Amino acid sequence: MSYRTIEIHRMPRTATEWHTFTASRKEAARLWSDLVERHHRLRRLHLKWPSKSRWARWCKGRYPGLSAQSTQQIIGEFCEAVNSTRQLRKNGHKEARYPWKRLRYRDVVYTNQDARLRDGKLILPHGASGTLRISMPVALPGRLMEVRISMAAVRLICEIPDAPRPQKIVIGVDLGVNTLIAATDGEKAILVSGRGAKATVQYRNKRLASCSHAQSAKTKGSRQWKRLQKRKARMLAKTHCRMRDLTHKATRKVVEAFPDATCFVGKPFNDAAHTIGRRQAQQVSSACNRQIIGQLDYKTAGAIEVDEHYTSQTCPVCGERNKGRRIYRCRRCGQTAPRDVIGSVNILAVGQHHSLIPGRSVPNAVICVHPVKYPGLSPGSSGGHPASSLGLSQEAPPRSLLSD
Ligand SMILES: [Zn+2]
User: Fold this and answer.
1) Measured in angstroms, how far is the CA atom of residue 190 from the centroid of ligand 1?
2) Ligand 1 mean position to 393 CA, how many Å?
3) For the chain, which terminus, N or C, has the lower number of CB atoms within 10 Å?
């Protein structure tokens, strides 16, 4: 079973809706804050934290502005937070902190017993605060499991049964910054440009820094501070959407080139950030590798993570280790190819044979594409399929690969 979250951006429309919305979110915050306070008190007295069912009994009738199910759901989340913090502290993470913040508003959570779908409308009861009715713009892909209401978004968590997908081919996938995704099945390779994603991350970081700098000169909570806060949130939301869009388009390119493939993906690791420069470290850590792996996992026959150490340095033909820049050149046998293609070939070998054995070949057909929905015309072609119109031979790597 897998779960998918559907997000509907929505604000209350009428005065009654606003009242219900705010009252329930405040009531949820009151419950959370009461639990925070009680947890603090019990901990100070070295008393045992009561079980979830005990809290559910305690809550009965105390929070009329929430439905009973939502109350239990919030208690469950609080107990989970307490348990995981306790576990972390036991394992030596002394910096882990128990829930401590008293909230003004909190997300309201509903189970599928509470939230009902009727005639294309989602009905959410809130006890004494009233009932919210939300018309659904999309059909759900599976059984509704949980609903959460945040400030401007309704999140619906659906359960999707796993449909068995026959595996046709096996591919190796290397994730990077300048080349977002490099994928190969051993015969042809596809490189998806990461320039757009890199620019978006850079823009986000720059704007964030300037906003935070401007904010540091204002009084926290003042009108000007709030205005900057709003600007920051808007910019972050926008770049978040843009990154999600880019990763979807990039993974789609891979899926179009290799339908129903099992992907071996290099496991993303952040150790690289320790040994490289400041600027590169930011790019590497901001790369959206986790997101891409998740998308590949459900768009293809499955994504399997493998160890990617030395995969972009080892020559697949003779096994020699070379360090190169964007273009890889082997010192022993003279093999030349874009570095990301070498990386993906080696990841494929690690996935299939669990080792980097020499004597393999490097794919001759290297296709470079951009994460766009529609194929653009490349010089000297008359349109057609993106793969054929943008096909480039190994002898002539694109200029973008040679530039740095
Ligand atoms: Zn070699």
Assistant:
1) 22
2) 20
3) C
The pLDDT tens digits for 346-359 are 999 999 888 888 88
54 CA from centroid of ligand 1 (Å) = 67
| Per-residue b or e along 343-358, where b marks 16 or more CB atoms closer than 10 Å to that residue's CB | bbbbbbbbbeeeebee
Strands in 231-346 per DSSP E: 261-266, 303-306, 327-329, 336-338
Compute, in angstroms, the gap from residue 363 CA to the centroid of ligand 1. 14
CA 360 / ligand 1 centre spacing (Å): 10
Residue 221 alpha carbon to ligand 1 centre in Å: 61
Q: Residue 11 corresponds to which tokens in the numbers above?
A: 């604000």
d(CA 262, ligand 1 centre) in Å: 27
User: Within 10 Å of residue 209's Cβ, how many Cβ atoms?
Assistant: 10
Residue whose tokens read 């994730």: 175
- pLDDT for 95-108, tens place per residue? 889 999 999 999 99
Copy the structure tokens of residue 24.
């329930």
Are 335 and 317 in contact by the 8 Å Cβ rule? The answer is yes
Query: What is the band of 377 on the pLDDT scale with cuts at 50, 70, 90?
Result: low
pLDDT tens-digit series, residues 22-52: 999 999 999 999 999 999 999 999 999 999 9
Strand order through the sheet with 261-266: 303-306, 261-266, 169-175, 179-184, 188-193, 365-369, 391-393
Q: How far is the CA of 359 from the centre of ligand 1 (A)?
A: 9
